[in-house]
Amino acid sequence: MTMLLIGQGDPELESRLSDELDAINQSAIASDDETPFSIRLTDDGGVLLGGITGWTWGGCGGITSLWLESEQRGQGLGSRLLIAAEDEIRRRGCDRAVVATMSFQAPGFYRRHGYQEVGRTPDMPDGTAKHHFYKRLSAVDPADSVNS
């Protein structure tokens, strides 16, 4: 007999499902080079002010999370993080990037940085939407790289 066990968060299940789906993906797609990346933005004392995380896989890079402390916003630091991530994605041999953001977060930010909206999930909580973006990246120019 089979059973459904419903509960709250389950890190063990999440890890197993991720591993199983990764195995399916690797058998279906020739690229097996999925690699995460992270970029921290800190003050002189090492206090975290923001950061960006993502991944590269099969010529594509993805932004998972980009966050800045509220006091740090509006100073160009988000752009600096995004440019650094795009540089890292290119450095790894990728020529495109994807990201998703909620309507109350940063769709305008990604549009300003050349991302094209390729989809939208409507009817999210409180009438919001999830926006899906794509950008074709030009070849990396080491002279244009942002210093960490």
TrEMBL record:
Its EC number is 2.3.1.-. Signal peptide: none annotated. Residues 1-140 form the N-acetyltransferase domain. It is an enzyme of class 2 (transferase). Transmembrane segments: none annotated. Coiled coil: none annotated. InterPro entries: Acyl_CoA_acyltransferase, Bact_Acetyltransf, GNAT_dom. It comes from the Bacteria. Keywords: Acyltransferase, Transferase. GO terms for molecular function: acyltransferase activity. This is GNAT family N-acetyltransferase.
